[in-house]
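Re: that chain you flagged

S.,

Sorry for the slow reply, it's been a week of failed gels. I finally had a moment to sit down with the sequence you sent. For the record, here it is as I used it:
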Amino acid sequence: MASNAPVLVPVPRPRPAEEPPALATRHDLQLGRRLFHLLNGVSTATAYAVLFTHEQVIHIFGTIACVVYIVDRVRIAYPEVVARHFPSVNRLLVRAEEEFRESAMIPYAIAVLLTILTVPKPAALIAIYTLAIADPASAVVGISWGRHKLLPERSLEGTLAFFVATLAIAIVVLSGATGASMWTVVPMALTIALAAGAFDLVPLRIDDNMTIPLFVAFSTWIIADLFGVPLA
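Prediction finished late last night. Pasting the structure tokens below so you have them in one place:
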């Protein structure tokens, strides 16, 4: 006799929506972001050194800073558009703490522009190259190989990387821009690198993309005056 019991057909359960990957923090290497900052700073400083006059670089980089600010405000105001159409932007260039507030590119651009506006060209070049090269070098070395902590956010290895990079930058720029002998350039560069390295250890609540170039720029200007080397 045939059974009249209903046949139960299993209904597939919908798969839960995949959560977007977590954004990186300042404790992650995030090499794409660091390379992006390095290329921006190096290209700006090199263009200022060899291609453009002071007035020209102010106009050009001032325009770039305005565009960066507008793009960042659009990113903050329309996160769903960025997530849908440009997901790699958040993944490669934005940290978790910057997802809904201004990114580090804003103080970066402002500090570079202020540096170019206010100090002599050699001091500005040392400051911008330090921000572009020494700062990410310190972070990469500290995150990858930092074993001896000086502060919760700073290691001996990262600080040494910052010092060595700043020293090399200062020697190259000063020797090419001032005409001073190496007997003068090397002690100047050592003093600049020591001051910059010590300042980098100060636990300020201000973005170091703003503080590092401004401090290095004015320190270089003051130290050059103490050594009797004109920068202007």
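What I noticed first: The chain has one domain: 31-226.

Talk soon,
D.
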